[in-house]
Write a structure and sequence with these properties.
Elements (H helix, E strand, L loop, with lengths): L2 H11 L21 H15 E12 L2 E12 L3 E5 L6 H9 L6 E6 L11 E4 L13 H14 L11 H16 L15 H13 L5 E5 L7 H18 L2 E5 L12 E6 L2 E5 L1 H4 L2 H8 L4 E4 L5 E4 L8 H7 L10
Parallel strand pairs: 3-7, 3-8, 5-6, 6-7
Antiparallel strand pairs: 1-2, 1-4, 8-9, 10-11
Bound molecules: adenosine-5'-diphosphate and magnesium ion.
């Protein structure tokens, strides 16, 4: 076994790889594990816990540096929120992780590979697009595209119904539709589903291939408050049940605050990551954005960030200003 295959096997099983034992020779299970091997196992385990890492990364679009000096680590199973004002480059960062957008500088690893190489283990919900009410594609078809869209195109009705792979696909699609609670409306045209129902189906689509990393770009945008709360609780349940790391781009941290392991605030000159208390405070954000920023805590525990360039509006303002399907993204 070559050294790379040996480390991969060690990461996968946590055990030293088994080597073929010649017939008649003694079994080797009592052989002590060498010190150097134990170190390699430990190093491999630590590395395997980081599912996304960016080191000193920068992005340039149309000749303009959008952000630079960004360091970021996402660990297995974590719930991380990516925050920052409009236009700062949050969607761009998600695209860099996916390998859709090339960085101008820096070192990026996604599940130990270059961005794009491990995308079969990455679920992605792009920033909200509205569906035309007359669109006749059903929710279940949309979810199926998450399974086979990029390999087979739009599946023909009934295609591969009798193969093992077709059965596995159907079972998994049913499972994720059930997981997101969309069974009652999955066969309805997607354009006729409500914003919250569409969002659940899109989350199911991102989940269908059992990703290890789920990138959700503003999944709460333009949802009403009860739906928003239900979708956040759903994402957290999925994270635990499917053991997937979630990176959720948000405009307003408050709905996700109780669930978060860490937040990342993005700015043109870098990013800061830490627990919400470590990052969302006046001192840290003022330093990051180079302008006085005040973080206030309302009596109900919500955080209000005041003075940030294009500061996220208060919850109520945001919902008044955005109709269903409204876009405020810059991409
Ligand atoms: N393809 C592109 N070409 C040039 N500029 C772009 C492109 N996509 C986004 N931008 C610009 O990059 C900046 C960051 O955009 P984006 O990542 O969408 O921000 P956010 O998601 O934080 O609102 C914005 O100023 C936007 O106008
Ligand atoms: Mg965006």
């Amino acid at each position: 076994m070559n050294p790379i295959a040996r480390i991969r096997e060690t990461v996968r099983t946590g055990e030293p790889p088994r080597t073929a034992v010649p017939p008649g020779s003694r079994p080797t299970e009592t052989t002590p594990v060498p010190e150097a091997h134990r170190d390699r196992v430990q190093a491999a385990r630590t590395a395997s816990q980081t599912v996304v890492s960016l080191r000193n990364t920068a992005v340039r679009l149309d000749g303009r540096v959008v952000w630079s000096g960004v360091d970021l680590d996402v660990r297995a199973g974590e719930f991380v929120s990516l925050l920052g004002p409009n236009g700062v480059g949050k969607s761009t960062l998600v695209k860099v992780i996916l390998g859709i957008q090339q960085p101008a500088a820096g070192e990026i690893r996604v599940l130990g590979e270059r961005p794009g190489r491990a995308n079969h283990h990455v679920g992605y919900l792009p920033q909200r697009r509205s569906f035309d009410p007359s669109l006749c594609v059903r929710g279940v078809d949309l979810v199926r595209l998450g399974w086979d869209g990029d390999r087979w195109g739009v599946p023909l009705p009934g295609a591969s119904r009798f193969t093992a792979r077709g059965r596995a696909a159907r079972e998994r699609i049913e499972e994720v539709i059930d997981l997101v609670g969309a069974s009652a409306y999955a066969k309805r045209p997607i354009g006729q589903c409500s914003g919250g129902e569409q969002q659940r189906l899109l989350i199911a689509q991102a989940l269908v291939r059992r990703p290890k990393v789920l990138l959700l770009d503003e999944p709460l945008d333009s949802l009403d408050l009860p739906t928003e709360a239900a979708v956040v609780a759903l994402i957290d349940r999925i994270r635990r049940e499917e053991e997937v790391a979630v990176v959720l781009v948000a405009h307003d941290v408050n709905p996700i605050l109780p669930y978060l392991d860490r937040v990342v605030y993005l700015a043109a000159r870098g990013a800061v990551a830490g627990t919400p208390a470590e990052v969302i405070n006046s001192e840290t954000l003022s330093r990051l954005y180079g302008t006085p920023i005040e973080v206030l805590r309302a009596s109900d525990g919500r955080l209000v960030v005041v003075g940030q360039p294009d500061a996220p509006a208060l919850h109520t303002d945001r919902h008044a200003a955005h109709g269903p399907g409204a876009r405020d993204d810059a991409d």
